[in-house]
Amino acid sequence: MWSRLLEDVAARTIDPDRAREALRRFAEAGGARDRAIAELVAEAAVLAPYAATLAIQDPAIAPAVLRAGTLDRALSSPSSYESELPLAPDSPELRSSIRRLRHREMFRLAVREASGRAPPDVVMQELSALAAALCDAAVRAGRLTLDERMGEARTSSGDVCRFVVLGMGKLGGEELNYGSDIDLLYLYETDDGEAGEHSLHEYFVKLSSVVTAMIGEVTDHGFAFRVDLRLRPEGSRGPICNALAAAERYYETWGRTWERAALVKARPVGGSLDLGEEALRELRPFVYRRAVEPKVVHEIDEVRRRARREAGFDDERDLKLGHGGIRQIELFVQALQLVWGGITPSIRERGTLDALDRLLGTGLVTEHEHAVLGGAYQLLRRVEHAVQMLAFQQTQRFPDDQDERAQIARRLGYGGPDALGSAIERARRSVDEVYAALIRNGHRESPEREALLDAIAAGAGRPELEGPAAALGFADAQTAANHLARLGRRPDDPLGPLTRERLPGLGDRLLFEVLETPDPDQALRHLDSFFSRMGGGHAGTMKLLADEPALARLLVGLFGTSDFLSSALVGHPELAGSIVLGMRAGPPTPSEVSAQVAEVAEPLLDDTESLMAALQRAKREITLRIGLGDIAGQLDLEAVSWLLSTLADSVLEQALRHASRATSARLGSLPLESMAIFALGKLGGRELGYAGDLDVVFLYDAGPDHGGAAEAYTRVAQRVITLLTAHTAEGTGYYLDTRLRPSGSQGMLVSSLEGFERYHRESAASFERQVLIKARFVAGNPEVGERAARIIESAAYSAVGPDTAEMARLRRRMETELAAERGGRYNLKVGRGGLADVEFVTQLLQLRHGARDRGLRVHGTLEAIDLLRRGGHLDDSTAATLGDGYRFLRRLENRLRIVRDEPRTELPRDPAALTRLARRLGYRERSDADAAAERLVRDYRKVTSSLREVFGRFFEDSAP
User: In this structure, which long-range contacts are made by residues 882-887, counting pairs with CB atoms below 8 Å and at least 24 apart in sequence?
Assistant: First the structure.
């Protein structure tokens, strides 16, 4: 019976022979007779052969994994293992339990990755968390053991002397693979103290040896991780551990560039994590120099070359050390971190991909470089993991054996080993090209650009420049030639001969960055306007851009991405200084936004015209900084929306303060301090975009003794609207939409709390309950706001469930009357599967369950989706579809609106405009048959189809 069951399990796999053999060995080893366990072992045998070997060697592994229920759950924190690593002295039993835990987790993680339950980056985090947990357990066990043998280690002040294990390399970057060594560096607090009759150094040398052996020593159960201590001060010749002061002296005196690079990834993983953070803070000036040092790039490259020479390396099948391999990508990233990290703190990331994202965000790598390096790194790490899962060997070598190659290709989704080999070679070749450009001069050289710049410096006019401009890829070569000629019209202009002499490379840098933007024609136009508007005072700016390529990339990137943000800067050149400082500092925080608005408004609250202009200036400058952070990748969708919403909140608050004071003064009345402004829609949900209207309602509580309150507060509201919507020399503030108030545009502009409550109790339509979900207090009297919020919650989340049919009818009308999707027209807001589908599903569930579960009463869509998932009202898959789809569409909406300061919600139908949009979203041209615009539309259709399917499930037959 049992043998027939095993045969059935094996037959259901993609490789029955391999599964059958593994199950036979598992049964012979005494494995549990359970179908679920057999299926897990068979799955491992087919997808990750060595994982099955582990399960056979220890038949308790597979049942333990199933009981724990961790195949579908990430254990990304060392604390996940606390219960399995009790506080106990070092012993053979403890060392065996550490190794058994390691083997079980290697089995679990290999199955998770090979089966697609977890991507490689998550598995790397989990492996790193396991290693950190074992390091910490070894420190705790070692100290218990040595305290008993040698005496407790204490400083001269009587405190316990701290000790830390720093994880270096892949462990520090949370990038461990199945065959990784762990690079460790041991530090202790001070030499000033003692451990019984022993010096602190003797104690911690012994502790370091114990920790190393507990993790790395080979026993009957193998080892946990191989330990490499060669990254310590003085390498293998130096002491196994150092006091913090001794380590600092070494690095200050003898520290070399490769040691700076090693410390980039350093992370406390065991012992006193606080001491580790202190040590890294003390060493930061050594790692990240304030002076920019371009020579570091060449020093890092020499480290790579020397390592290959010393190893006699000639195996180009090595995924790590071969040309264009993993190590080359890591060194590229670390070189830029060392060059720029002293003045750009945001790039100080340990993980390679995280650091690469930050380098893109600060403009230190182009989107092309980011795509090449990031894509290659992910591919090579996936292949590396697949190679290691064959036998859990410490290898990064792509196998010679054709059967093994075929297994790897099949597991990674390639048609065969040749297809996978070609993909690897293309990726590595591209990495080589990007790396070589960094070694040369930081950006790719181009004879075509150089010839064009020579012609400009020689005084060539538009006719002579048209041909070269067209060859470089400008869509409108004639207009581009005009801009290029103007940029070199005078000797000291950015492309003029004197500038080329004084600032060699600036012109090529600017032209290179222009061509890297999503819209080179637009970027060149704004670059020309920028320097033209600055007049003769642009020498300092040019010097800054020449000295700091990251700023040049950010500035030109802005010009090529957003017309309206570029116009805001070009039209107000006086902002250039503060914006450049903002580029260095990064995007503002919410508190900085609020503080800046309050600072400019406070002195002007009694001066309407001046306040109006000041608020518009502040809005423009802050929006520019947010937009720069967005374009640079420093802000994600939620952060951009939160900051733009905070800006609108702050402006509304200052406008209401002014309006209340001015109206009170005009009427000669008591202070009008009992008003509250509530935001609805996107602002209510903190989901505002660049061109969003502000949906608001004005509420007040006049009290019993003020008969003229309605008229007075109406005047206050009218002043707020006028202040924010009026056009001045500084531009326009916001458009306020008050049509969502009781009775819509036919109702009073302001509502008393009593009237508002009565309306929603007696007269409100079904959709108005839905509107109130996003109602959020943003300005005015907090006590009035609190009372109004209680009324709003009571009205929205009543015991009466939502009218599903009415919601579906309203959604159908929106799609039919507003979207008008036909003939290739796509409306991402109200079209089929658009943002409205996500919001309606989310709000339906909030209305349905929010009466009982107060935790669901939140304003933001993404927050609501997450809470609905946690509460069991959405399964993980549906929540992911809704959340990912919402982010995709909102990001698309933001990129549409960042081009023009207009509320656009339709995909462009013009092919050129659609291509530019795709490029702004990070799509790159691959071939005529797989154009960026076509991939964008294909992704849009896929996302909206998935969202419509979810919508249909919740609204059943009522779905439009």
Answer: 882/838, 882/841, 882/842, 882/947, 882/950, 884/943, 885/833, 885/838, 885/943, 885/944, 885/946, 885/947, 886/835, 886/838, 886/861, 886/862, 887/637, 887/862
pLDDT given at position 583: 63
Count of alpha carbons within 13 angstroms of residue 598, beta-carbon side? 11
The CATH number fitting domain 804-958, selected from 3.30.565.10, 1.20.120.450, 1.20.120.330, 3.40.190.10: 1.20.120.330
Of 370-379, 429-438, 534-543, least confident by mean pLDDT is: 534-543
Domain segments of the chain as ranges: 70-287, 297-440, 445-582, 586-796, 804-958
10-20: average pLDDT: 82
What average pLDDT does the segment 128-148 reach?
96
**CA quadruple 81, 84, 88, 89: dihedral sign:** negative
**CATH topology classification for 586-796:** Beta Polymerase; domain 2 (3.30.460)
Which class in CATH covers the domain with range 70-287? Answer: alpha beta
Paired tokens of 776: 């959020």
**How many beta carbons lie within 10 A of that of residue 913, not counting itself?**
15
- Amino acid 306: pLDDT: 62
Per the structure block, which two tokens stand in for 57? Answer: 């060697």
- Cα distance between residue 290 and residue 758, in whole Å: 64
- Give residue 112's identity as a one-letter amino acid code: R
The confidence score (pLDDT) of residue 747 equals: 84
| Crossing angle (nearest 10°) for helices 876-899 and 861-870 | 170
Arch. (CATH architecture) of 297-440:
Up-down Bundle (1.20)
Q: 70-287 with 586-796: one CATH topology?
A: yes
Q: What is the mean pLDDT of residues 892-907?
A: 78
The answer to whether 126 touches 76, Cβ cutoff 8 Å, is yes
The pLDDT of residue 931 = 77
Considering only CA atoms, which of 767, 765, 756, 764 is closest in space to residue 790? Answer: 756
pTM of the model: 0.61
Q: Could you tell me if 697 and 738 are in contact, meaning their C-beta atoms sit under 8 angstroms apart?
A: yes
Per-residue pLDDT at 417 exceeds 50: yes
